[in-house]
Amino acid sequence: MNAPKPVPKPYLIRTALEEILADLVEGDPVPSERDLAAQFAVARETVRQAVHELLVEGRIERRGRGTVVSKPKLIQPLSLKSYTEGAQTMGRKPGRLLVGWEDVDPTPELAAALEIESGQQVMRLERLLLADDQRIGLESTYLPKHRFGHFTETFDPETSLYAAVRAAGVVFGAAVERIETVLASPREAELLESTTAMPMLRLNRRSVDTEDRPIEVVRSLYRGDRVAFEALLTDR
């Protein structure tokens, strides 16, 4: 019978760290890597690996020169609700920062998804998504210009786009959404105040109205350490 394999030291340190975090609350400082290495009599590299895992999971975060306990992740529902509604449900303050808003020539794939003819442009709206003033996501929305061109004059990009669509008399009917784990580009990481090594959640959505006419194609990139998603599943 083979002897059991020894438990890796980083796992033991991570377990000990989780016990420490259980007694702390949001914003409390976490012991430094040097102090933890001395406390558990291990190399700082061993501590650093365990700390990195907790950073990636969003349990802790860097603030200045120190590390503190993070806020709980923002839980977003997988539904036809807007990001605003999801944030408000959790008691968080939603916000948006405009990155860019322009008319662009669509790729053949985008033109097909929005069911527009060759030569027609689409509106591209790129915004940073905030929760309690933290940057949590980067969203690029493509809208058929022939249908929503008036938004250029009437829509405030720091407010809910879905509310504006509904106010225009358009009713969301259905959407197909795909979620993948990716790494951010250098530009995306900078906008999200993150790094290219931090895992991101990428959502690709195509929404249609109740008459099956395309409303939008959206590509959203969320920080995996700050956001999680959930869905209600039922067989009824």
TrEMBL record:
<dbReference type="InterPro" id="IPR036390">
    <property type="entry name" value="WH_DNA-bd_sf"/>
</dbReference>
<dbReference type="InterPro" id="IPR000524">
    <property type="entry name" value="Tscrpt_reg_HTH_GntR"/>
</dbReference>
<protein>
    <submittedName>
        <fullName>GntR family transcriptional regulator</fullName>
    </submittedName>
</protein>
<feature type="domain" description="HTH gntR-type">
    <location>
        <begin position="6"/>
        <end position="72"/>
    </location>
</feature>
<dbReference type="InterPro" id="IPR028978">
    <property type="entry name" value="Chorismate_lyase_/UTRA_dom_sf"/>
</dbReference>
<keyword id="KW-0238">DNA-binding</keyword>
<dbReference type="Pfam" id="PF07702">
    <property type="entry name" value="UTRA"/>
</dbReference>
<dbReference type="InterPro" id="IPR011663">
    <property type="entry name" value="UTRA"/>
</dbReference>
<dbReference type="InterPro" id="IPR036388">
    <property type="entry name" value="WH-like_DNA-bd_sf"/>
</dbReference>
<keyword id="KW-0805">Transcription regulation</keyword>
<dbReference type="Pfam" id="PF00392">
    <property type="entry name" value="GntR"/>
</dbReference>
<keyword id="KW-0804">Transcription</keyword>
<dbReference type="InterPro" id="IPR050679">
    <property type="entry name" value="Bact_HTH_transcr_reg"/>
</dbReference>
